[in-house]
Design brief:
With about 450 residues, chain A is an alpha/beta fold. Chain A has 17 helices and 20 strands. Chain A folds into two domains: about 230 residues, P-loop containing nucleotide triphosphate hydrolases (Rossmann fold, 3-Layer(aba) Sandwich); about 210 residues, P-loop containing nucleotide triphosphate hydrolases (Rossmann fold). Chain A has a six-stranded mixed beta sheet with strand order 6-7-8-3-9-10, sandwiched between helices. Chain A has a six-stranded mixed beta sheet with strand order 14-17-18-13-19-20, with helices on both faces. A four-stranded antiparallel beta sheet of chain A has the order 2-1-4-5, with helices on one face. Chain B has a single domain, classed as Orthogonal Bundle (ABC transporter involved in vitamin B12 uptake, BtuC). Classes of the chains: A alpha/beta (about 450), B mainly alpha (about 325).
């Protein structure tokens, strides 16, 4: 084995991103690293590249144990990484990007240094061109050329094709094939089954931060890999879709069209980047008066971290609580308290900063903000991401109550069991288009993943 | 433990410390009493901090929204100039009361409009407030100098309307009373009103404020208009105090106001802070200046000491690093 990583663990706050994950890479292979959103694949790649420090890890290269504590350590060991959002400096030139922080560049004309590597990846561009004038595909090739110029023997590629058009993808695959034949080992982080089975020799599957297994691509099928990604246990409690009320919202967007009924919980499945979050933004924009959006990232898009729990909850209805511009603080409190009880909000004081609450309770505060506003359509973008099980159940109950009260709910989730449990119908998005619609009773995790990844 | 206590009590502890120091090292009068504690000296301090104090109240709101206003000194200069011009040259036939009322109304309207323009450009063109108010700092100073032909416009000591105006508006009670009234209004505005809540929310997380449907642009225009208004009123007081309209007045006032706000614990990136903190911050600077002047400390040394105090006050209050 060229590289062997064992017992790799890493936590962020209360979330265990990796627990004793394992990964082994042979020389000259294309090895796919797959898993659902949040399975830990990018974290593992970043640890190998020295960008993220693990809590613990044992990494052996060429039979020698090594410690990778810094990107320059990785560079010396011949490990290069192409990040998802290419880590290039947009205002600097291609040549400057090639040479900055590059231990192998020891002066001389930058253009001469770049030429052989540009030729190797088939990048036609002058070294003095600013990176921001290059296409995304060209930037990708530049990032690869940069890694190669650092004598990389191992190339980690994180979601390399996520923003590439079809032609650039073909070009990239051709380059990957060339590199492999030249002896470079490639770790291809992805969840796109068609790509993985086209280029990878072996596949390692991660689930919930642990390694499920490594398989030969030739000896398995996409269905089998998907099964390993999502695990066996399928959501147990299933609700028969209730009789649908009248149509509440008719959505007609390019590539995506559906009706939302009164009292319906409509599930949306799809990978990150499949258009599920931009759907929410589009709906909130088009029907600003009726649709409220509980954004995916509650920290950057929802919460005011230094405002109190109560202030966060009532933020969107202040004019209603005020007389002559003065907030009636008793009314404010009285309006919120029953709702807080209904959501089983647990917080020491309504006047404490909202960031002192757990993730689940923070989410409840945001949910309360929109409930008080009384919108009839709620777009919930991954409302249970990163929160603990008990809080999840409270939020499930709140969602069901809302639907029963006649709201229409669009629920985006990365967790398929959650969708299967709550939603009556599930729409699967893939590449910003509606790929499939399932009745929850006939949907399975495997079928949804297949539609989302093909 | 000590650090925790310091952080929570914030700038108030710093003020107490400086007060105790000021009393301790105060020179004594012939009868042995401490000069620092004499009522005349204490009210002098309040009067000296009132102009910066008034401006820094509004500056607190600007900074809470995540903005900054560098133009306050220039608006003050324009206001002193307009005040003096209006009183000495315009409306010669008006009665004294009406003349003074019209003058103040005019000055406040122009100042608030200048501030509103800052806010509108910042909010609607989505430009950085630093750049917008840097431009207006230059432009408004130019306007003040151009209007006055680059000269001070004197307000005399006779019995004319300008002199009468100055006599009233340089009274300690009027100056300090203005500051106290403005402080009370701004305390309530921030703590109790929808507007104040919106100001804090926008500075805390503007993206989330947008998602929550808050009136971001309207709020910003109001915040900068209020800053213009208060800077203009400070200009009226300045003209009375110095018996002149001075187009070169108020240079670097923006820095003193910002210093008072940050010493008071308001975060420069917005969202977190209080009017009470700013008042304490203003008092700290005022007491410090008074204490050093009573001891005849060189004014250059005074600046160096102030620099240290600013850094210390903010360092003590910075939040614990998140784990």
């Amino acid at each position: 084995m060229l590289l062997q990583a064992t017992r790799v663990s890493k936590h962020y706050g209360g979330v265990q991103a990796l627990r004793d994950a394992e990964f082994a890479l042979a020389g000259g292979e294309v090895h796919a690293l797959v898993g659902e959103n949040g399975a830990g694949k990018s974290t593992l790649a970043r640890i190998l590249a020295g960008v993220t420090r693990p809590d613990s890890a044992r990494i052996v290269i060429d039979g020698r144990p090594v410690s990778i504590r810094h990107p320059l350590d990785a560079q010396r060991l011949g490990i290069g990484m192409i990040h998802q959002e290419l880590d290039l400096f947009p205002s600097l030139t291609a040549g400057e990007n090639m040479t900055l922080g590059n231990l192998c560049y020891r002066g001389g004309r930058i253009a001469d240094f770049c030429r052989p590597f540009f030729a190797q990846v088939g990048l036609e561009c002058e070294a003095r061109r600013a990176v921001e004038t290059l296409s995304i595909g060209q930037r990708q090739l530049l990032a690869i050329a940069r890694a190669l110029s650092m004598n990389a023997r191992v190339l980690l590629m994180d979601e390399a094709t996520s923003s590439l058009d079809a032609t650039s993808v073909e070009r990239l695959f051709a380059v990957i094939g060339e590199l492999r034949r030249g002896g470079v080992a490639i770790v291809y982080v992805s969840h796109k089954m068609d790509e993985i089975f086209r280029i990878a020799g072996r596949i390692t599957i991660l689930r919930d931060g642990a390694t499920v297994g490594t398989v030969e691509a030739a000896a398995t099928t996409p269905t089998e890999v998907i099964r390993m990604m999502v695990g066996r246990e399928v959501g147990d409690v299933r609700h028969a879709a209730p009789d649908l009320g009248p149509v509440l919202l008719s959505v007609k967007l390019p590539g995506i069209g559906f009706d939302l009924h009164r009292g319906e919980i409509l599930g949306i499945a799809g990978l990150v980047g499949s258009g599920r979050s931009s759907l929410g933004a589009a709906l909130a924009r088009l029907h600003a008066d009726r649709v409220v959006l509980l954004p995916e990232d509650r920290r950057t898009q929802g919460l005011m971290p230094d405002l109190s729990v109560l202030e966060n909850a009532t933020l969107a209805i202040l004019p209603r609580l005020a007389r002559l511009g003065f907030i009636r603080r008793g009314t404010e409190r009285r309006e919120f308290e029953p709702l807080g009880r209904r959501l089983a909000l647990s917080c020491p004081s309504l006047d404490a900063p909202v960031t002192t609450l757990s993730g689940g309770n923070q989410q409840k505060v945001l949910l309360a903000r929109w409930l008080m506003r009384g919108a009839d359509v709620l777009f919930l973008d991954d409302p249970t991401r990163g929160i603990d099980v008990a809080a999840k159940l409270d939020i499930y109950r709140a969602i069901e109550e809302l639907a029963a009260a006649g709201h229409g709910i669009i629920l985006v989730s990365s967790e398929l069991p959650e969708l299967l449990r709550l939603a009556g119908r599930i729409l699967v998005l893939n590449n910003r288009r509606l790929a499939a619609v399932y009745d929850a009773r006939e949907a399975t995790q495997e079928r949804i993943m297949a539609a989302a990844t093909q | 433990m000590t650090r925790d206590l310091l952080r929570r009590s914030g700038s108030l502890a710093a003020l107490l410390g400086i007060l105790i120091l000021a009393i301790a090292i105060s020179p004594t009068a012939a009868d042995g009493s401490r000069i620092f504690l004499e009522p005349g000296n204490l009210t002098d301090i309040l009067r000296q901090i009132s102009l910066i104090g008034i401006i820094s109240l509004a500056m607190t709101f600007v900074i809470l929204t995540g903005g900054i206003d560098l133009s306050v000194g220039s608006v003050l200069a324009l206001a002193t100039t307009l005040t003096a011009m209006s009183l000495t040259r315009w409306w010669p036939d008006a009665g004294y009361g009406a003349h003074i009322a019209r003058t103040i109304a005019l000055v406040l309207a122009v100042s608030a409009a200048a501030g509103a323009l800052n806010g509108a450009v910042t909010a609607f063109l989505q430009m950085q407030p630093f750049i917008v108010t840097l431009a207006s700092m230059i432009g408004i100073r130019g306007l003040a100098k151009w209007l006055s032909n680059n000269e001070n416009i004197d307000i005399g000591f006779g019995r004319d309307v300008a002199a009468q105006f100055a006599a009233v508006f340089r009274e300690k009670a009027v100056v300090i009373g203005s500051y106290v009234a403005a402080a009370a209004v701004f305390l309530v505005l921030l703590a109790r009103t929808v507007f104040g809540r919106h100001v804090r929310a926008i500075g805390d997380n503007e993206r989330a404020a947008e998602f929550a449907g808050l009136p971001i642009r309207r709020t910003k225009v109001w915040v900068y208009a209020l800053t213009g208004l208060l800077s203009g009123y400070a200009g009226v007081l300045y003209a009375a105090e110095n018996h002149q309209g001075n187009p070169n007045a108020g240079v670097a006032y923006e820095l003193d106001a910002i210093a008072a706000v940050v010493i008071g614990g308001t975060r420069l990136s917005g969202g977190k802070g209080s009017v009470a903190g700013t008042i304490v911050g203003t008092l700290i600077m005022g007491v410090l200046t008074n204490m050093l002047r009573l001891k005849n400390v060189d004014s250059n040394v005074e600046m160096m000491i102030k620099a240290v105090i600013i850094v210390l006050a903010v360092a003590v209050q910075r939040p614990r690093k998140e784990v």
